């Protein structure tokens, strides 16, 4: 697992993927920060974080699209699957590498805290809780998109499908808002990653939401492992 | 026993890639796997390396069951698939290091190990180059190099010389011969002469079944499978059932029948003294042998013989010829 993790981290920065992710994240984050905080002279960082969530939908597929799809396309999965590494180790190594790049990007957001500190007041506990929710949401999107990458053998298709799946998560929220049938609304709200994020944006530490996000991650990582195993058993390479 | 595949069956949907396939190899054997496209060569290698499981049967590698102890079994195998599994964005050095880490080689010995492999495979001069800039020959060498990481006892090579120029092919064959002194090697190829040059044992697959499995050193020809041309004074209708009943006869082919004379080509196992058995049988039938001469088989002829599907016109039904 460690070998795969290290290779993926290296690969993120030997190819444009890591730079594109961190670059676009930082640029759009900067624009958001200017609009939400600097222009309106507000020190409310949670509103800023709330606006940033759509970035996960857009950028998480950039991180994950090549992770499994490229292995299939270039048939390098033969090396991994004939090495003494378990399928879980392969998936976890790749997931943790994507998570590390995500953390690197999120770390850059702390610059904005510094800027606010120069001119105003930051509620650190609130910010910490908000960041936790933000990172958890990112983790959930990466897990979902990693699973989708395993279904595809072309990176572009993997990106498009992952983005579509992320959008579907968002559409769930919109759908729930426009429905009158209460049980369906409850189900959609239960599933929705955005609804789960709301308590964090209010500065509330929601254990239910933490648990849900962690289960979401575990479910899609397990699904990625199962899918890879089923392809291996069937002997399907492409 | 270095590895064994026992009763392996693999299906892709309704199509059988391998049927009840059994194979084992001892230490320092070079085993060549021949067969037409779709015969099941790559499937055999994929199952042996643990890339995919078999539907039925067991794979033992160095005493470990591939299904139950995959980590231990995979540690003993180095695999070069048909398309070398290379990451273009990495340098040769980084890539070899990565494969060593994958094979769980101790960190402090990785540098020396990769240097040794690079030296052995002639990659020293490109060690710091990006893989994307390497020529086909070097990519293939790197493919071999990665399979050597972790000093495996078994090397599995799927068409290792495909796409190389003649000089590179010669070099690659030299390398395989050299590696064969320390490892057990099983490799697939379409090139019969290559297999003839390199292997101590040849296996031919046809439609997922093993149809030929012999050592190459027994008689200079392959596998002691000899063809005899015989002209016998007896009608074919009497002759053929009697000849087919002989254990040493694998296949009979009627060349011509004129009057009471029949000309046959017999595929026989030379180690079973077929001439003596044939003479005894025909003497009993009062069928004089008018001519009997060996038709020495080249591997190509054997290959065509054992991989021919339905018998062609003029050819009689073969006996159960699974050597």
Give me the CATH architecture of the largest domain in chain B, please: 3-Layer(aba) Sandwich
Largest sheet of chain A: none
Over the alpha carbons, how many angstroms does the gyration radius of chain A reach? 19 Å
Oligomer description? heterodimer
Question: Strand percentage of chain B, roughly?
Answer: 25-35%
**What's the number of structural domains of chain A?**
1
Number of domains of chain B: 2
Which percent bin holds the helix content of chain A?
over 70%
Supply the helix-strand structural class of chain B. Answer: alpha/beta
So how many helices of chain B? 10
Number-wise, the strands of chain A total 0
**At the first level of CATH, what is the class of the largest domain in chain B?**
Alpha Beta
Query: Taking all residues together, what is the mean pLDDT of chain B?
Result: 82
**Largest sheet, strands/sense/barrel of chain B:** 6 strands, mixed
Indicate the CATH topology of the largest domain in chain B.
Rossmann fold
Structural Rg of chain B:
23 Å
Topology:
The complex is a heterodimer of chains A (238) and B (323).
Chain A: H1 2-14, H2 16-38, H3 45-64, H4 69-74, H5 77-81, H6 87-108, H7 110-119, H8 124-151, H9 155-177, H10 182-191, H11 193-201, H12 207-234
Helix pairs in contact in A: 1-2, 1-6, 2-3, 2-6, 3-8, 3-9, 3-11, 6-8, 6-12, 8-9, 8-11, 8-12, 9-10, 11-12
Chain B: E1 3-12, E2 15-25, E3 30-35, H1 41-49, E4 56-61, E5 64-65, H2 70-75, E6 77-80, H3 92-102, H4 107-121, H5 136-148, E7 154-158, H6 166-179, E8 184-188, H7 192-198, E9 201-206, E10 209-215, E11 225-233, H8 236-244, E12 249-258, E13 261-269, H9 274-284, E14 289-295, H10 299-307
Parallel strand pairs in B: 3-8, 3-9, 6-7, 7-8
Antiparallel strand pairs in B: 1-2, 1-4, 4-5, 9-10, 11-13, 11-14, 12-13
């Amino acid at each position: 697992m460690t070998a795969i993790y290290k290779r993926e981290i290296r690969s993120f920065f030997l190819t444009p993927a890591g730079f594109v992710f961190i670059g676009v994240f930082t640029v759009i984050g900067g624009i958001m920060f200017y609009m939400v905080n600097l222009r309106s002279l507000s020190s409310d960082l949670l509103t800023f974080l709330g606006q940033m969530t759509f970035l996960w939908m857009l950028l998480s597929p950039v991180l994950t699209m090549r992770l499994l799809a490229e292995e299939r396309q270039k048939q390098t999965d033969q090396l991994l699957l004939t090495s003494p590494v378990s399928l879980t180790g392969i998936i976890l190594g790749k997931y943790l590498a994507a998570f590390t790049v995500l953390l690197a990007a999120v770390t850059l957001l702390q610059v904005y805290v510094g800027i606010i500190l120069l001119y105003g007041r930051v509620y650190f506990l609130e910010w910490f809780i908000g960041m936790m929710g933000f990172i958890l949401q990112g983790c959930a999107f990466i897990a979902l998109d990693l699973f989708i990458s395993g279904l595809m053998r072309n990176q572009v298709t993997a990106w498009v499908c992952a983005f579509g799946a992320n959008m579907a998560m968002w559409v769930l929220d919109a759908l729930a808002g426009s429905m009158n049938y209460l049980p369906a609304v409850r189900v959609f709200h239960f599933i929705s990653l955005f609804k789960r994020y709301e308590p964090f944006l209010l500065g509330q530490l929601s254990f239910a939401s933490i648990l849900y996000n962690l289960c979401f991650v575990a479910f899609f990582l397990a699904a990625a492992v199962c899918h890879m195993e089923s392809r291996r058993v069937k002997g399907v390479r492409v | 026993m270095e590895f064994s595949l026992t009763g392996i069956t693999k299906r892709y949907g309704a199509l059988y890639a391998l049927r009840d396939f059994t194979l084992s190899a001892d230490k320092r054997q070079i085993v060549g796997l021949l067969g037409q496209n779709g015969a099941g060569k790559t499937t055999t290698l994929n199952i042996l390396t643990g890339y995919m499981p078999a539907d039925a049967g067991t794979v033992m590698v160095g005493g470990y069951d591939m299904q139950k102890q995959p980590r231990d079994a995979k540690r003993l195998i180095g695999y070069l698939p048909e398309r070398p599994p290379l990451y273009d964005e990495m340098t040769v050095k980084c890539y070899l290091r990565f494969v060593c880490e994958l094979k769980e080689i101790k960190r402090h010995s990785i540098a020396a190990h990769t240097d040794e492999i690079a030296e052995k495979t002639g990659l020293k001069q490109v060690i710091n180059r990006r893989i994307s800039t390497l020529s086909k020959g070097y990519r293939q060498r790197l493919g071999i190099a990665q399979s050597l990481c972790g000093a495996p006892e078994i090397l599995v090579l799927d068409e290792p010389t495909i796409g190389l120029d003649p000089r590179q092919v010669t070099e690659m064959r030299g390398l395989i011969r050299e590696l064969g002194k320390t490892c057990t090697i099983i490799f697939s190829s379409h090139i019969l002469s290559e297999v003839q040059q390199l292997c101590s044992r040849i296996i031919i697959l046809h439609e997922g079944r093993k149809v030929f499995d012999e050592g190459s050193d027994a008689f200079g020809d392959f596998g002691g499978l000899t063809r005899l041309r015989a002209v016998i004074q007896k009608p074919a209708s009497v002759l053929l059932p009697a000849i087919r009943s002989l254990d040493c006869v694998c296949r009979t082919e009627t060349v011509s029948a004129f009057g009471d004379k029949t000309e046959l080509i017999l595929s026989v196992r030379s180690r079973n003294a077929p001439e003596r058995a044939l003479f005894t049988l025909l003497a009993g039938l009062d069928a004089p042998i008018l001519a009997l001469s060996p038709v020495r088989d080249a591997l190509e002829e054997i290959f065509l013989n054992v991989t021919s599907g339905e018998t062609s016109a003029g050819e009689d039904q073969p006996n159960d010829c699974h050597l």
